Amino acid sequence: MVESFQDVLTIAMFIVAPLAVVALIGLIWVLSTQKGRDMRRAQNAVIAQRVRDHNQTQDEAVARSIRNDQF
Description:
- The chain is mainly alpha-helical.
- It has one helix spanning 2-70.
């Protein structure tokens, strides 16, 4: 009985251990790609804010020029 139970445990470990390794690798991959995605979103947000600021500055410069031309 003990030998057969030990055989079942051994076989189960040959099934469970590789699945655990695959699950761990998958978890690391998902977390790393999520972190990369978050970093790209943050960079894109900074770039978009800079573009908005630049456009606003350009719009203000045009508005000042128009106001100066009117007077």
